[in-house]
Amino acid sequence: MAPRRLDIKLPPVTDPAPHKDTIKGRLLVDVLGIPALLILIWLGGVYYALFITVLVLLGLREYFRLITQGGLTARRLPGFLAAALLLAANAQYVGLLPGGGGWATLGKEFLTILLLLLVALQIWEVLQPAQSPWQNLSVNLVGVLWVAGFGASFILVRSADYSNLGVQVDLAYRLTMALYLSVWACDSLAYLFGRAYGKRKLFPAASPNKTVVGSVAGLIGAVVLMLGLGYGGWLPGAAISPVDLLVFGLITGGIGQLGDFAESRLKRDVQVKDSGRLLPGHGGALDRFDSLLFVMPVAWLYLTWALL
To answer: Is the dihedral of CA 171, 176, 180, 182 positive or negative?
Structure first.
């Protein structure tokens, strides 16, 4: 018997016009949720880390539901444990947990337990009588890496030590805010220009409504906003050069769209429109943070190798 697959081929579809209740729900989430998120980003520290932890666990829950609808088995308990260990290790690395910053004893213990857990999961999966144990194992591990591993970078970017860059402002807060704003600008401009002028579809296999015009507009908007934040003084030139601003804009406007496509492809494979119903009018946690799940780890890598 052939192994189960997630790649279900579907005909092109278009989203129906939003219902009045959906629009009201979307506005309510925007009015209450965006200010709350901005406050959490400003607070940083444990408050922001706890928010990201909840967000990651909700996103992983949605991911497990999606792969279950695709015919695979979600290993929820080891998956959630692995996610918690990844987040704890990264929180300890930036000094949010006892033991100080860096890979101190606590961080090593978290990673040791995580590796043992993954080995145990691999052995358990292979010994199961179900079909395609390696496919099932791979899909579960990818989910943990994508949602929890990438999600942990949200904490790294916001809580990293930028003191060696020689600026007096809270650069961790300012850069994190800039990344969020740039991603939001990309999403908004891609939507507006795509609906108004877009004709040629960009990637219909993943997202039938995304257009080339919308994608280019989003990319340009993300870069322009990031450059504006730099030249406007929000991101001080003494720490973030024009080249850095351009790179961050390309990350938010380019890599961010790839994150959107990745999640859209998963949803389309299992024939669902939204990953969940957490946010009325917006879908689930993965729907709202799919772009940032690709942006934050790449931004962290650039920070690590080029700035910090």
So the answer is: positive
